[in-house]
Amino acid sequence: MDLQNCRFVIMVTMWCWWLPWADGLQHRVGDSIWSIPLTEDFYTNWSSTQSFQIGDTLVFEFQSDFHNVIQVSRREYQGCTADNPFQSFQVGPVTVPLVEEGVYYFICSVANYCVLGQKVSVAVHRCSAVPPSLPPSPSPPLLPPSSLRPAVVTSVITENLTRESSVLLLSKRSSGGSVLVIVLGYVFLICVVVFSFLLL
């Protein structure tokens, strides 16, 4: 493999390694605007059909003058009160990152909107990087010191990284993605290209 092909393989491998960790899913709460639902269990039903993992985000889209988003405890969620909120968002839209495992509770504290069903709880789970059904990748072959030329070492490293990135790509959930993540991905790719040229 010539040096140009090695650089290309390294860039593709680095991009494939970075992509699965780029972002989580972005959940638009209720798959519509955050407002008083037609039925009291609308948001509960929506939440039960979703899978929330660490790294995902919730997006609450609402009119700031008429609604808000308050993160509360379970007790306050059940009683539709917001005496000791964890977070309060008065201006929409709001994006809330799900940064740890557990149950998050959100209500609207305007008038009696919470009692009318404008509340949602989401159970966030830890995600696994590699599905348990996949076998571990074998370790790289040991090469005698005399055969350690940069092209050989690079191909061994990229072969193993490519194998592991395919496993990671298999475990990635599909997502809508975001412009920021795409831009950061391209910046990362450009850095890899520049770094590979500096190695010459």
From TrEMBL:
Q: Name one GO molecular function term.
A: electron transfer activity
Report keywords, A-Z.
Answer: Disulfide bond, Glycoprotein, Membrane, Signal, Transmembrane, Transmembrane helix
Under which name does UniProt file this protein?
Phytocyanin domain-containing protein
Q: Which PANTHER family match?
A: BLUE COPPER PROTEIN (PTHR33021), OS03G0648500 PROTEIN (PTHR33021:SF288)
From the record, give the transmembrane residue ranges: 179-199
Q: Which GO terms describe its cellular component?
A: plasma membrane
Report whether Transmembrane shows up as a keyword of the record: yes
- What organism does this protein naturally occur in? Protea cynaroides
* Segments forming domain Phytocyanin: 25-126
Asked if the keyword Lyase belongs to this entry, the reply reads no
Q: Do you know which Pfam families this protein is assigned to? A: Cu_bind_like (PF02298)
Instruction: Tell me which positions the record assigns to the signal sequence.
Output: 1-24
Q: Specify the superkingdom.
A: Eukaryota
InterPro entries for this protein = Cupredoxin (IPR008972), Phytocyanin-like (IPR039391), Phytocyanin_dom (IPR003245)
